[in-house]
Amino acid sequence: xxxxxxxxxxxxxxxxxxxxxxxxxxxxxxxxxxxxxxxxxxxxxxxxxxxxxxxxxxxxxxxxxxxxxxxxxxxxxxxxxxxxxxxxxxxxxxxxxxxxxxxxxxxxxxxxxxxxxxxxxxxxxxxxxxxxxxxxxxxxxxxxxxxxxxxxxxxxxxxx
Length: 160
Description:
The longest helix has 33 residues, at 118-150. The protein has 5 helices and no strands. 2% of the residues are buried. The termini are far apart. Helix content is 81%, strand content 0%.
């Protein structure tokens, strides 16, 4: 069979090859080839049954009145919101760590490219982040301090 122009995809033989590979793996696990074929067929029927049941649930959901469907959807959104609200103690630090790691990855790669050992590259990346954060905090501090010094005393609001 001639391959199609995109990446050698051959739809007719892909499924057959996958089935043969699965049968080979099953035959390694089970001595008898016929038993392996039976087990593979049972596995396929189990998964077919799960897919069929999901389709039936979807069809049953479509047959429900719109108010009940929207109520189920709203309850699902509410439950997801509650999970996120309760889990924010765990989720927020994980998200912060994820975004910080994304921010530091180019710097880490730069240090690794200059032949630094990995632990040293990690420490240097974190050190650069701390120095940068300190410089930004110092900049804000000096700007706010100069702003406060520039306010004339007559413009200050008296507190009674």
